[in-house]
Amino acid sequence: MVSLWGSKKDGNTSVHNGDGDDNRPASVGRREYNHTEPDERSSLLPRRAPPPTSDGYLDPDDPAVSPYNLWSVRFLRYFTVIFLIITFLWWVLLLVSIFVSPPGMHSRGSGFFDFAYTCLTLGNLLVAVLFFAAPAKAMRITTAIVAVFLLVDMVIILSVGRIRAEEGWVGIASVVWAAFIAIWCVLTDRVVAWGKREEEERLTGRPETRRTVKEWLAVLAGTIISVVFVIIVIFMTGTLGIRTRDSSLEMFGERIFVDGNKYQVHLACIGNVTTTHGKRDPTVMLEAGENPSEYDFEHWAYNSYQNGTISRYCYWDRPGYAWSDNAPSPHSAGMSADALSEALAISGEEGPWILVSAGIGSITSRIFSSRHLRDVVGIMLVDPLHEDLLHRLASPGRGFLLWAWGIISPLGIERLGGALFQGRTREDRVYGRNAYQNGKYIKAQLQENLVADSLSKNEVVSARTIQSGDTPLVVISSGIKCRADSEWERKQKDLTGLTDKLVSWDVVNKAPHEVWTTIDGRTIMEKRLDELVKQAGKVQLPNKK
After folding, report:
1. Distance of alpha carbon 150 from alpha carbon 119, whole angstroms
2. pLDDT, tens digit, for every residue of 505-542?
3. What residue spans carry the Basic and acidic residues bias annotation (predicted)?
């Protein structure tokens, strides 16, 4: 029997050296062994022949058994990583555009939908990269469902004119990219599963049906995340359906492109132009507060029109409110005043104007007045916001909450719940009590927050210094607000000195911030408006060339 290290032959001991020379004397072998130091090429263990029962296949747990052996799998992973980098850069750009609009990237809508689609795309790619080597049928099915809903969203955005205009090329590109990536992830997972099976059959003799605990955990995590993505995209599709429904709501007035045709604002006028003693009667220009003009505030003006107190009035929606588009960021109160001026000029509307504003809208109205001194013949401020209190709107905490609320607004949980279970109508969502759920409205609030204590404050302070002292002024304040906030009351009193011709300062005892929601508030507002109209008739406007 031949031993492992040597054998007996002719009475001499020979040594196997692994090179086929088995007949050297043992002394020579020992001499070479003693004087030759091993290096990195030296075999530390003797070479063994494979067991007689071996079939030549690798163990299924051998690291060499991997789908990465196939060039097609490596190709897919390479491009998946590239897509992930591209999507991340696009995600960063969209995040920045919420606060500062890059040139050419302004969206007339809120911009939250394209950001949401990009977040979903980023999530799909991260799942694909993290669980690339652990393909699973459940993940393919859920990702395929996501892809189907994204294709539906793409069709809705492209086919509904109003939504297409609001989303613009940025939103369209985002949803198309999201749909493409979802399909790519399905195909990638399928190819990896095929490659894994092929390599297992080639290297181990059969496809592996077992999974390690680590693989099961990876599959479970990937599937749960994909199911969450399915739920998200279902809500987003439902919200798009609500937007489609709301886009069919008819409006009075027209949308007018402003700021170099970047976005549209809604403007409407009620009544005919009249003249008295050869002079044009003033038109009341409404500037709403924290809600769209159509929500209660315009109703009061319409009643005054029907009662004959005024002969004509106009109202508009600031960017992001009701039927108006969102403006590029940043957007200040002075920019809103300029947008109003441009819209009035394009539509052919001329003064004289009596400005009636409420709440934060009084900031825009005062800036507009200072820039149209020759045309403004009266100012009525209804529980106005003082420039020294703009810091309340500009708090970082409020800004973060608005941003967070905007980010999840594409889910439309409240909007869908209100439509399905509470009977909320299109009017409620566009300009009514649920308008605050609209992504455009949230974006407008966020824009106000970002510049309230900087750009907007500087603009209104400058406006106060150049405001004409001859303009008749009425200030009407909320009694409830004044009693609850002494600083608010002091600032209301300060605003009575905005011009030298204070007609009246009324504190309506039981009225809230929206003074016109009470009978006493509406009565006093209409009475003071009538006084402004009569005083305006005594003012001789300078001739315009």
Report:
1. 13
2. 999 999 999 999 999 999 999 999 999 999 887 654 44
3. 18-42
